[in-house]
Amino acid sequence: MTNSVAQPAAESGQLAAPPRPPLRIALTILHLGALGLVGWIVFTILITLFSVGLGMVVVLGVGLILLAAMVYALYGTAWYEFARVSGLYRLDLPDLRLRPQTQQGFGGYLRWLARQSVDGPMWRGVGSFFFATFMGTVVLGFFQVAVELFFSAAGLNVAGMPFKQGLLSKSDSLFSPIASIIIATLCLAAVVGIALLHRVVTVAIVRAGSRAARLTQQAQTSARQREGAVRAADLERTRIERDLHDGVQPRLVSVGMTLGLAQQKIDNDPESAKELISEAHTSTKAAITELRQLARGIHASVLDDRGLDAALSALAGRSHIPVVLDVRLQGRCSREAETAVYFAIAESLTNAAKHSRASECRVVVRLRDDNTLWARVEDNGAGGARILPGGGLDGISNRVLAAGGTIRLDSPQGGPTSLEVSVPCAS
């Protein structure tokens, strides 16, 4: 069975270095030229879906299918425009998402469709796409005039060229060669100016409202992280109470009863009293060991003193099953990130020893280029692990979420089980 819990965090990998201004202008011109050729086809399809769908609504509701297709097409156009502008200008834009459907059934779907059809970000994307298409048409016109003028200045016959229906095809000698070159240069300059104008207007369109959307997304992320932190603290407190109640507390009660018996026999049967005191002494040392293990489960001091690599080495040495460690870290991360990854690995090794019947575990830890601390724990056990409320994997999930990270569990029946954790690292 496979489960995965994904939480907001920084994605792995870094954005490529942004292109230099001349290259970006050239890419913008190419984008505009392509949209000038294809964009009107897209709008023709959208208008056709709307007009035909609206006209056929009364025909057994067939038009509703076309209108729904139009809404999805509008969203796809807007999504493409957001992705195009974000990739072209290296903008950190929030993802364009469909509105959530809050009500079930066909009526709920129609209401969702109506709300989506008036979605502001979607229409901003469509508007940006329309503006880019219009500017692309103008760019193609200027470029065609410039090319015809250059051919005319060179003494070539443009009538035989593919654009022979151009503005100058019937009067190649309308301008002198020098004037043709000057006008053609001005046309190319106009193309560059349109590319610059496209950036200013398009970025303003797609970024309108993005600040509020980004703040809303950050607030939602913070709320989820706070919820995860509270949940992780509750689970940790419950675990500590259970360990104290089931382990240390009964042992200490037994020590007290043993010492009481020894006190009663110390005068009449000293030898038996000595044996009881020795038994109590052994139980006391065992209780101290359990308390140390419990404290280590709350806070690993070696993690603060020597770092994650040394802490994981000590953890692997105490494991009941063999652990292969592959840790490659170039430096230290924040205490929060290292603690989250450490306890995720510790809980995974504990689960592997208790439940999976694994004979070996492999732990891989890397500090990625995007400053993310990434870890993978894999065992060769029986698989079938699931994230259950109150369980160990639930505790891992909430602890990682509180640190702003992500967790992915892959555990099909029959194994193997792998757990991947990524936590942003502020070293």
UniProtKB/TrEMBL annotation:
Stretches assigned to the Histidine kinase/HSP90-like ATPase domain: 336-427
Keywords: ATP-binding, Kinase, Membrane, Nucleotide-binding, Phosphoprotein, Transferase, Transmembrane, Transmembrane helix, Two-component regulatory system
Residues that span the membrane, as ranges: 25-47, 53-75, 129-154, 174-197
SMART domains according to UniProt: HATPase_c (SM00387)
Enzyme's top EC category: transferase
GO terms, molecular function: kinase activity
EC number: 2.7.13.3
Chemical reaction(s) catalysed: ATP + protein L-histidine = ADP + protein N-phospho-L-histidine
InterPro entries reported for this sequence: HATPase_C_sf (IPR036890), HATPase_dom (IPR003594), Put_sensor_dom (IPR025828), Sensor_HK_TwoCompSys (IPR050482), Sig_transdc_His_kin_sub3_dim/P (IPR011712)
Protein name, entry field: histidine kinase
